[in-house]
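To fix ideas, we quote verbatim a fold written out as tokens:
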Amino acid sequence: MADTSTVQAEAMGPDNVPAPMDRSHRLSDTVPVSVCGLPVHALTLAESIAAADELIADGRPHQHVSVNAAKIVRAQRDSELARIIRSCELVNADGQAVVWAGRMLGRPLPERVTGIDFMLALWERAAHERYRVFLLGAEPAVVRRVAAIATSRGVDVVGYRDGYWSDEQEPKVVAAVRAARPDLLFLAVPTPRKEYFLARHLADLNCGLAVGVGGSFDVVAGIRARAPRWMRRVGLEWSFRLMQEPRRLFVRYLIGNTAFVLLVLRDAVMQRKAHR
């Protein structure tokens, strides 16, 4: 019998399967659009993978971030998080609400590129290009399981560690990643911890591209279910999460989504005034 975790990970692949790489499209040619004062690159999943190749190839450390409505709202009151997002070389629209907002503001984004879809597509790319990969985050058993799944897909996993460490242990975590010399680092811890950690240590991590992926390891390991593909395609993944954790997420979604709508409306009004 096939392992259920592996079957789930295989079945959930990216919502938008990357098309063949378009090498004529360069990240440096892409001007981010502004959504509520934060930059978002108008890239498809395939273009984002090509951008990752470009960043890894230049030999310097780079940070990626995915933004959704909740993160954009949080960044309005967290100036450090906003600064980090603006400093990232690659910013994807993780939530469908961000894509809708871009469309409403006349700043179209071609599609949402979720953290987990980006990670799974990068694994495929890593297997092809022999990129070195380090997995950091989640519970010890979870990250071990994710490392085994990634390895079974041909990924060169050069190291992994759980996401639980004290401030005193942090230098050792950084040293472990640096010693592994990964091309790709995937960090699965909550926002804003992952953004702060990567911004604080990016120069010392010795990795080509650092990617924050939140709870993606739990999904790949089969600990947490992901919404059916049809719900993801029509932008209803949030409702599936709400059904899974109504007590924890109801107030968060009610307040957060309302705040995001108000931010987008404010952005639209300011844009209209600027064009008078």
